[in-house]
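Dear colleagues,

As part of the handover before I leave the project, I'm documenting each prediction I ran so the next person doesn't have to rerun anything. This entry is a single chain, and its sequence is reproduced below.
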Amino acid sequence: MGRVIAIANQKGGVGKTTTAINLSACLAEREKKVLAIDIDPQGNTTSGLGIDKINLEKTIYHMMIGDSTFNECLINTEFENLDILPSNVNLAGAEIELIGIEDREYILKSHIDRIKDDYDFIIIDCPPSLSTLTVNAMTTADSILVPIQCEFYALEGLTQLMHTINLVKKRLNPSLKIEGVVFTMFDARTNLSLQVVENVKENLNHNIYKTIIPRNVRLAEAPSHGLPINIYDSKSAGADGYRQLADEVIENDKYN
């Protein structure tokens, strides 16, 4: 059965989408069958994997409001072993349209449970907010992966995120776990990055990945070309980082 990992942090700009795109692609490169789910109305994971999000006829929005099936919305990307459930700005309207719908927190789960066995890993890119869409991701997920940017306000909002995860666990998804924390945008030249890593390790009682994703120009460039980093620049520090993260995720999966 596929392992479902939601990538969440309501703080923007921490590398959620970058992690969703590149972790998915590097898991696929390791010959794992991967589904990326873009549940962010910005649709950046969709465009980052080379899909024209503006002209899509069917997206996760149509699936969640009941207009389309999972298979009608699914796209096989040009990258081997990697499919995507795409998103675009239409999804922003789902928040309002789902008001009053029974079990609206489980809409995504009801679809994904049916196809879970078809994949080794399902990676969900959450929006930078604690919304109905994020709650849907958390009820669907087995675990939450939290990217933390190596900057001064790294821990800001983390308490609220952990509170939300615990609420979802208590009321909606008792089996939900915290997959762990991964540091992103690490700059070895600055004392600040090193201090942030130490500070988080001292204050967080959760698994922290050994892999640290470096601040890397090639990582920032790749989405504009619609390519994951392992394809855009296979030998870059960013590609090395996400391959290491993929290997750690695969290794952790053996114990879950």
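The two ends are 11 Å apart (CA to CA). Residues 18 and 231 are 14 Å apart (CA to CA).

All the best with the project,
I.
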